[in-house]
């Protein structure tokens, strides 16, 4: 990775993050949108706290860069990216609840149930999830109806029973019955992998890519999703809570098996390098146009927080 | 209401309920559906417990009868009805949580967090909500894509910020700052009214009704939604916990203002009669075809549990 390449990636990541935050901040204002009776101020504040928290906005970046690969309209990609970030944020808000991971901090700030209360966090999460589907279904983009239902189907699958919430459920069980390696891989592919894969596939759907290209983006998404979780597990072992803005060492404390606890840190680093290589290879047919997506794969593997 | 009319309504309500339960039981099986990696058994059990609980299935009935009014395909209406019941059920599962209404019983059975645990109840609710949108977006019905996005938009609005979850948020605040009469009406229109109204409007959407007829069904839905909440508030004051299968007198205990606490039981009964009349009048143009929907309005106003 050249310094220049890394720098362009970092700048673009920040620009994309700023765009999606501006849109989310408008969308989640207190002002009722058309067709709404009212927007309860405290609920909206809890939703904004859960979403506008200085996240890296990696998933929105992946949607927008993947869509750009196929020349898709930028405004449209931005709205789908915002919807996906609502789903990601809702999952964090619920995951932080006392009955789940019981986290007080996220990115150095109090979690939604600590800043507001548990009921507000439950409802804010529910509302964010619902709003994500409303955003995609709305006719304010240039997407035709078929494209919108394709996105909704893919997002619901990635975030529901067979995807994210299913993976979270398996994760809770994993604290009692330790899964074997295949079980861990399946759990992680569902819990964090499915939504990252969706982000990349969504760009191809928005850009009306052919089946072959859509499959390529999905494969790229699977590789970086796996890398993301592996890097996360590594960080849980090696990073300081200060750098993460949240508690670390929680997996070990919970007796939770990860690929890192099974195979060790050195093995995990080799695996990560292999996944980055796989991601780069699958993007090779797109040439220079995919440079930032390749950078994203390296960024995910190398991240420190 | 004649005995015969009541009986036909009761039989139809039960038949519709049986159909939607059979479909929900198939949809929420442990067997992974196409495109899903896995279905965690405990999560599915928690979802089934939250959904297959002997509910009256009033909302599915309203979808199916409204759709039948416009000659819509029965299988299609049934799937949309099942999706709506998933949304209704998720809201009950989350509403019963200790941080929300803290209920141990629903229809005489332990609530999901009592039978499983809080984490399972949170995830089961999240998964049911997500699954509802997947069901509507799926291409297994004869609905075209435009019709599906119209339904998704309407459902998301009815159940999100400006609808159900917004109403729940207002309801939580109402325990601290007592709303005035207009505030109570708005709260109830959002919390319970919006989803009942959606049920009726959905039938018109599925049946490709014209704007005028769709508005009629929405107005009918608003009237019976208001009646539903008024009857609920009355029951909270007058019914026995035994009949309700859940705790009663909770509103008064929580110091929660309702239209019944403001205006008294006799006023509420008169209001209910007026709402039934309004519902019947708005359906008048449909003649005999709408007989069961008129029965439904009376059933809602007269219900004992």
TrEMBL record, chains A, B:
Keyword field contains Cell wall biogenesis/degradation: no
Cofactor(s) named in the record: Mg(2+)
Gene Ontology terms: cellular component: cytoplasm
InterPro entries: Isoprenoid_synthase_dom_sf (IPR008949), Polyprenyl_synt (IPR000092), Polyprenyl_synt_CS (IPR033749), Prenyl_diphosphate_synthase (IPR053378)
Keywords, sorted A to Z: Isoprene biosynthesis, Magnesium, Metal-binding, Transferase
Domain of life: Bacteria
Gene3D superfamilies linked to this entry: Farnesyl Diphosphate Synthase
Protein's UniProt keywords contain Magnesium: yes
One Gene Ontology biological process: terpenoid biosynthetic process
A GO molecular function held by the record: prenyltransferase activity
PANTHER family the record matches: FARNESYL DIPHOSPHATE SYNTHASE (PTHR43281:SF1)
NCBIfam families listed in its UniProt record: FPPsyn (NF045485)
Family, per entry: Belongs to the FPP/GGPP synthase family.
Protein name: Probable farnesyl diphosphate synthase
Source organism per UniProt: Phyllobacterium sophorae
């Amino acid at each position: 990775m050249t310094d220049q390449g890394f720098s362009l990636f970092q700048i673009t990541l920040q620009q994309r993050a700023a765009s999606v935050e501006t849109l989310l901040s408008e969308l989640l204002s207190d002002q009722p949108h058309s067709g709404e009776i009212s927007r309860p101020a405290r609920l909206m504040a809890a939703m904004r706290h859960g979403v506008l928290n200085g996240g890296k906005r990696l998933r929105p970046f992946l949607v927008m860069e993947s869509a750009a690969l196929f020349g898709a309209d930028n405004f449209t990609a931005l709205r789908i990216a915002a919807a996906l970030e609502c789903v990601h944020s809702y999952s964090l808000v619920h995951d932080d609840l006392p009955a789940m991971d019981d986290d007080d901090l996220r990115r150095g700030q109090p979690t939604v149930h600590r800043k507001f209360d548990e009921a507000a966090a439950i409802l804010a999460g529910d509302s964010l999830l619902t709003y994500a589907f409303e955003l995609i279904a709305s006719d304010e983009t240039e997407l035709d109806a078929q494209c919108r239902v394709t996105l909704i189907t893919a997002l619901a699958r990635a975030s529901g029973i067979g995807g994210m919430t299913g993976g979270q459920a398996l994760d809770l069980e994993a604290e009692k019955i330790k899964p074997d390696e295949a079980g861990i891989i399946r759990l992680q592919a569902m819990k964090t992998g499915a939504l990252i894969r969706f982000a990349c596939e969504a760009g191809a759907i928005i850009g009306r890519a052919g089946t072959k290209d859509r499959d390529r983006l999905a494969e790229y998404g699977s590789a970086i999703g796996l890398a993301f979780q592996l890097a996360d597990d590594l960080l849980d072992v090696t990073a300081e809570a200060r750098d993460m803005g949240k508690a670390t060492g929680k997996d070990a404390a919970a007796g939770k098996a990860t690929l890192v606890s099974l195979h060790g840190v050195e093995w995990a680093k080799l695996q990560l390098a292999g996944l980055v290589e796989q991601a780069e290879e699958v993007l090779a047919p797109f040439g220079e146009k995919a440079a930032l997506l390749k950078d994203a794969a390296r960024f995910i593997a190398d991240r420190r927080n």
